[in-house]
Structure formats: structure tokens, C-alpha cells
Amino acid sequence: MTIQLSILRSVLLASVLATPMVFAQQPADAPASKPTPPLQPAPTLVPGRPDIPSAEIGKRLANVAPPPMGVSEAELPKLKVPKGFNVEVYASGIGNARTLRIGDKGTVFVSNRLLDKVYAVVDKGGKRETKVIASGMDRPNGLAFYKGSLYVAEGTKISRFDNIEDNLDNPPKPVVIYTDLPNHASHGWRYIGIGPDEKLYINVGAPCNICEPPAENAQIRRMNLDGSGAEVYARGVRNSVGFDWNPVTKELYFTEHGRDWLSEDLPEDELNRVTKVGQHFGFPYCHNGTFTDREMGWGKSCSDYAGPAALLGPHAAPLGMRFYTGNMFPGYKNAIFIARHGSWNRTNKVGGDLIVVRMNPNGTVKSQEVFMTGFLVNNSYLGRPVDVAIMKDGSMLVSDDHAGAIYRVTYGTAKR
User: Fold this and answer.
1) What is the tally of structural domains in the chain?
2) Are the beta carbons of 128 and 120 closer than 8 angstroms?
3) Local structure of residue 249 (DSSP, 8 states)
4) Burial (Cβ within 10 Å: 0-12, 13-18, ≥19) of residue 205
5) Strand 243-245 and strand 286-287: pairing?
6) Which of 138, 140, 162, 413 has the fewest Cβ atoms surrounding its Cβ within 10 A?
7) CB-count burial class (<10 Å; 0-12, 13-18, 19+) for 380
């Protein structure tokens, strides 16, 4: 047995040694193999922001920082309006000019978001003077005026300045009326207005781009003028920085910003209409009334939420809006003027203009068209419109927080 095993081992060894070792060498004249392309590095995610595709894209599409105190009058944008209309500079040198409100005596109040001030512009025989009436405030973006009192909404509170137009040079101390507001940087500035029901309305934005918002966020609230009786008026509102009431139906309409970093072209920003208290407008589950969110929309249906009255363009950033109730502009009665601040996270920017939305008698949207351009030139901002206000003579004011200015639009023969 031992001899047989020994013979078998010898035979196997001889067989192995006789086998050509082709796997250990290549013919000298064999063509070289095609080099393998190197692996492309994965996009670098922005820390804490998995919704942003990559750091490089984030750097290219960063938000547009305005000059701290605006620009000189010579650098202001050259604005274009339809034939028959005129545009003049009403006031300039107002850093970060945002929300506009007009007092009973014609004072134009102007808010801030990036700075800490509230201004008053007074017209004295065609010469306008700008006064600081409040400073040291926290994002005082929201303004409302009613029966002699100016209401100012900061990040975490609402205050009231009584009899303000008679005391512009020595403003009274503000009376705080409401403090139940969450404090957060993202969408943490406020917009306020007083409705036909003599109640105060305020936005409370979502503290995120896209998330399941806390119960006290992503809504519009209303309350009594002394801050009591607060209630949620509309839910599922990502961030609204402009609203007004239809003078015919008395219903609230508001602009809303869609989420970022889903696509350059989706979702579009919205104009919404509240037809009953407590309606939910879809955030964060449904966008544009037509499709669910890729992260938050699983198991949800857009049919469960109130759809938009109109779509206003992808990332166009509609802000202040006003129903036109004046008599100067022919053919615009009860149409909505909306300031589109302009996109920042789009390669080719859209917005940076004033649009007009025309209404049907039943409150639905009939059409929309561009009314004022010139803020966005060659894909760069010379200005960015924020809010609109209708003056007693029917002319219209438009604020520009980038250039730090207010423009006045009139119709007819321009005054020299």
C-alpha cells in the first residue's frame, strides 16, 4: 500500500510540473490592455444638510448678499413698466428696505430683516426725509398699521407703537402684545397684516428646508389686536412672507416658498387662497398640489390638502403682495401685484420682477403677467423687489432690499 501511494504521488507531481504555467506570464508582444478609468470621487455632502446635492453645487448657488446700505442712486436698476406707466425713485439709501406700510397721514414705514431698524419716510412738499423710529430690534421684518398704531413683528414678539405719526422724532416706547413665537434662524422672520375682521395675522415659517415641522411651525396664525385669542388659521405653510385680503370675497391670499434642493425646476412657488379656517396647504408632504415629496410624502396624497390658486415659478421667491384697490391704474382694479424677489439656487435665475395676477369674479385666478422688470440683468441682480403698497392717490410703492430703495409707480403724464 505504501509503495502504491508513493508511485501515485510521483505521477501526480510529474503531471503538475509538465503543465504550462500560462497564468504566470504574458507573451512579450501581446497588446496592452485598455487602462481602467479612475473612479470619480463621490460628491462631498454639506455637513448636516443631506438634502443639498454637494458642497460644490452649494457654493455655486449660494444666496445673494445685498450691499449693507444699498447702492448709490446712480447704481439703481433701470426699471421697465408697461406703456403709459412711469417709475421714479421715491427714496434711496435705506439699507435692506423690506415691508412697506402707509400711515393715515401718508408716512411710509419701512422694515428690515438683516439690520435692526424700522424707518419712516416723510414727504414734505416733494422732498422726502427718512427717519429711524426704532433700532436694536431682532429681524423687524413684519409691519402693520391700524388706527394710528404701528405694529412691528420681530423674530420672537410683536410690539405696538401708538400714535406714531405724531411722534416720529420722539417715538413712544413699544408695547409688547405677543411673545409666543418660536425662535429659529431658518424662516424665523415674520410678516403681519390686519384683516377685514380686525384681527392680526402672522406667519410662523418652518424651521427647515424640508422636515416634519413642530406643531407650532409651518402655519399662519391670527389673534386679536391686543395679542389675545391666538389660533392657527392655516397649516402646512412652509414659509409665507406676503399676504393680503381679496376686497370682494374678503378671503386671505398668501405667497409661499416651495422647498429647495429637489430640482432647479421643481417645485414652483405658490399663491394660495384660504377658503376656510384650518386648511392644510400640503407642506411638507405635497408640492404644487400635484406631487408628493421624495422624502416626506410616502403614504400621503395631494388630494388631502388644499391646492394652490396659482403657481408662480420655480424658486422665484414671491414675497409681498397687494390687491390693487386704487383708481389710478386703468384695468387693474382688484388684481394682485406680487413682488418676486428672485431665485438664488437656480443656475439661470428667475423672478426679480413684479408680476400682476388677474382674478375671476369668483376669486379664482384668471391670468398672470410680468409688470415690472430691470432688477435682474444678465443673470445678476441690480435690485430685488420685496413688497408693494398702494398710496392714497392710487400710485404704488415697491421696496428693494438689495439696492436699498423704494420706487413709485404712477400712470399718465410723468411729473417733471
Assistant:
1) 1
2) no
3) T
4) buried
5) unpaired
6) 413
7) exposed
pLDDT band, residue 261 (cuts 50/70/90): confident
Q: Is residue 279 over pLDDT 80?
A: yes
Q: Are strands 108-110 and 100-102 parallel, antiparallel or unpaired?
A: antiparallel
pTM: 0.86
Q: How far apart are CA 109 and CA 356, in angstroms?
A: 23
141-151 residue pLDDT tens:
999 999 999 99
Contact 311, 268 (CB under 8 A): yes
- The Cα 104–Cα 178 span in angstroms is 24
Q: CB of 355 within 8 A of CB of 380?
A: no
Comparing C-alpha atoms, which of 326, 414, 374, 358 is closest to residue 81? 374
Cell digits of residue 90: 421715491
Q: Name every residue whose Cβ is closer than 8 Å to that of residue 126 and which is 6 or more positions away in sequence.
A: none
Give me the amino acid identity at 105: K
Q: Residue 224 is part of which domain span?
A: 78-411
The answer to whether 394 and 388 are in contact (CB under 8 A) is no
- Report the alpha-carbon distance of residue 141 to residue 154 in Å, rounded: 6
Q: What is the 3-state secondary structure (H, E, C) of 369-394?
A: EEEEECCEECCEECCCEEEEEECCCC
| CATH number of the domain encompassing residue 147 | 2.120.10.30
Domain membership of residue 240 (yes or no) is: yes
Q: What residue type is 114 in one-letter code?
A: L
Domain assignment of residue 401, yes or no: yes
What's the Rg (C-alpha) of the chain?
Answer: 30
